[in-house]
Amino acid sequence: MAFEGLSERLQKVFSSLKGKGKLSDEDVRKVMREVRMALLEADVNFDVVKTFVKTVRERALGAEVMESLTPSQQVIKIVDEELTKLMGQEAVPLNKAPHIPTIIMMVGLQGAGKTTTAGKLANRLKTNNKARPLFIAGDVYRPAAIEQLKTIGQQLDVPVYDEGTDNDPVEIVKNGLAVAKENKNDYVIIDTAGRLEIDEQLMEELQKIKDLAHPNEILFVADSMTGQVAAKVAHGFDEQLDITGVVLTKLDGDTRGGAALSIRSVTGKPIKFIGQGEKLDQLDVFHPDRMANRILG
Ligand code: GDP
Prior knowledge:
Layout (H helix, E strand, L loop, with lengths): L3 H12 L9 H17 L4 H17 L8 H16 L15 E6 L6 H16 L3 E6 L4 H14 L3 E2 L7 H15 L3 E6 L7 H14 L3 E7 L4 H14 L3 E5 L8 H10 L3 E5 L7 E3 L2 H9 L1
Parallel strand pairs: 1-4, 1-5, 2-3, 2-4, 5-6, 6-7
Antiparallel strand pairs: 7-8
The site of guanosine-5'-diphosphate (GDP) has 19 residues, from helix 5.
């Protein structure tokens, strides 16, 4: 289960406070040292942990005693609020173009879940917005990726614009957008190539697609299982492409929390959706407060 280790650790830390009438400064410091260890073990970025712990500690030490809460409840409340803030405070909706089509470009490393998430998004838009999306198959390096997108397209009854693997992806996107315009599709979802790691050539290609398509949304798809590495890679993509949001995938697995808790702080960009399974309906809006509650158990 996601965040299991972190949740257990934090619950244990906070249970050590139970029954205490008033917390001494030393109690707070001790608890925060434990929280720090728990976050580092969950693979949260070091600087993020440092700032987080400092903020919580200062708030907890300076907190006026609230009659309605026990000292341990008060610390938990502060941790809850700061975790929520760390993950962006509020849900951020998908950007929408003033005129159709809204263009969404999916980017990320290979295997992160770009193609699957493209499908999930189209499914969501069809179901919730009665949208008529079009996919553009921009990953010309892996024939399997095009086939995968076509299969998803068939399942969802969403057309896929592709030119196989022979043409330049920038040209393909250009032609695909012309088709979307002709067919009055209200959303265009561009699937792009990934690599095993950040690579200059790929970034150049993505930059060219961005310059041509002017996407309303550039979603970085991050595999939450990769922990704080996901945040580092997201930062790399953001520096090159100025991403507009993040989708965290594989939160149905036993991910530790490093990606969810680091990515917003490291990139400054909102996590908009979370993937919680392989099926096309397993994409949810990301709510920082609910995620904080899930972590605190
Ligand atoms: P891409 O290379 O970035 O396009 O990645 P894919 O979309 O092909 O996904 C890689 C693998 O991750 C596939 O086996 C997907 O089924 C799986 N996957 C994607 N998102 C999720 C998710 O949210 N949960 C789980 N469990 N698997 C996922």
